[in-house]
Amino acid sequence: MFEGVLLLHKPQGMTSHDCVAKLRKILKTKKIGHTGTLDPDVSGVLPICVGRATKIVEYLTSESKMYEAEVTIGFSTTTEDASGEIVEEKKVSQEINKKNILSVLESLTGSIEQIPPMYSAIKVNGKKLYEYARQGIEVERPKRIIQIHKLDLLSSIIREKGLLKFKFRVRCSKGTYIRTLAVMIGEKLGYPAHMSHLIRTESGSFKLEDCLTFEQILSELERNQLQEKMISISQALKDLPNMTINDTLAEKVLNGAVLPLPNEFKSLDLEAVFAVYNLQGSCLALYKKHPVKDGLMKPAKIFVIQQS
């Protein structure tokens, strides 16, 4: 039985759901889930949680992401990417240089407001936006504040047939739409635009160079080495605040006990979690501050340790 986080190099042309369904068959397990949707046209890092690791999905989706994208300026589309129908066209006639672009990228760095695209899975009144979009219905979308931690120009500027293209790298918070960011870049330059290419290179601490393709996964499976390629729960949560406890306390933790809150965690928010490890280095549980009992902590998730 496989357990841990499997880093998939998601190919273009598949939904994240398709990837999970395929891996469910390959690994012969139902207990599997991904940690953040990638559109079918997008490739890159897609962490897949298997077995007990499905309990930590929500804690991995909140991590920051890094992408490498290309924006094409000169026309916009219904989906804000290359797969959509053209909405507006305007040939790039004025001179746009590197200095102009760097200035726009700088202006979009930090805390900014985004409106999710109509072709997205955000729900409004219990219905996904893309369902409205497919029916030709435009609805008011909730604005959201997202964080652009870093936004860099990656390539030279390419001009062809009234269009302008360039690549950029962005590190951003959960919930950022890179498609929409590409449109915003175009708007600031005075033109309609869309995202013409995207790859996710990092998801939290997980990097593209550590990911496996489906072919590599099948190869490792044949060699009985796939489990070794997976990231353990303890390893996946290594960036969380943590504490190590003795065996006596470990038994109480596995029974879901409410325990005294160590001083170093008293400044954390109520919803912030921290990992509790045993002396052997295994993560036993995730705890957080007790919402009503001051000075105590309660379990958010408990990982039952398999007996050897």
Automatic annotation (TrEMBL):
Catalysed reaction equations from the record: uridine(55) in tRNA = pseudouridine(55) in tRNA
Catalytic residues (positions): D39
- Name the domain of life: Bacteria
Q: EC number(s)? A: 5.4.99.25
Q: Which Gene3D superfamilies match?
A: Pseudouridine synthase
GO BP terms, alphabetized: mRNA pseudouridine synthesis; tRNA pseudouridine synthesis
Residues forming the tRNA pseudouridylate synthase B C-terminal domain are 179-232
Cite a single Pfam family from the UniProt record. Answer: TruB_C_2
Could you state a single Gene Ontology molecular function term? tRNA pseudouridine(55) synthase activity
Indicate the enzyme's highest-level EC class.
isomerase
Q: Describe the location of the Pseudouridine synthase II N-terminal domain by residue ranges.
A: 24-178
List, alphabetically, the CDD domains matched: PseudoU_synth_EcTruB
Query: Which UniProt keywords are listed?
Result: Isomerase, tRNA processing
Against HAMAP family, the record matches this protein to: TruB_bact (MF_01080)
What is the purpose of this protein? Responsible for synthesis of pseudouridine from uracil-55 in the psi GC loop of transfer RNAs.
Q: Which family does it belong to?
A: Belongs to the pseudouridine synthase TruB family. Type 1 subfamily.
UniProt name for this protein: tRNA pseudouridine synthase B
Q: What species is given as this protein's source?
A: Metabacillus arenae
Q: Which gene encodes it?
A: truB
